[in-house]
Amino acid sequence: xxxxxxxxxxxxxxxxxxxxxxxxxxxxxxxxxxxxxxxxxxxxxxxxxxxxxxxxxxxxxxxxxxxxxxxxxxxxxxxxxxxxxxxxxxxxxxxxxxxxxxxxxxxxxxxxxxxxxxxxxxxxxxxxxxxxxxxxxxxxxxxxx
Length: 145
Description:
By secondary structure, the chain is mainly alpha-helical. 61% of the residues lie in helices and 8% in strands. The chain is built from six helices and two strands. The chain has a two-stranded antiparallel sheet with strand order 1-2. The longest helix has 18 residues, at 68-85.
């Protein structure tokens, strides 16, 4: 007997294979998506709202201390389900997981755009050391929520 979770996971994995994702990506996305489904066990997965997804990601960041990279992988796994499997339109979710500009935040931004050694990066570090309460928002697209 297959549970609802098993059915959703099988469809999810088959779509990843069909889209020719790498075996490592399939394994990672399946593990993260299964965590997501387990977190919302008993809910209708198609009807989970953007707000609930944001809370889920924020909970992972606060309680499990997941990295920015893992956060992005988890969001992308969830996005894949809603946008590719359920064929919903893209929407944006906002995750305020880096709530303040800090030197660490600037370093993450610099790594993403490869500016770490530039004069611009040095200026950003100086600015960050004087501001401690400026919100930083990261957005990701997710379908149909």
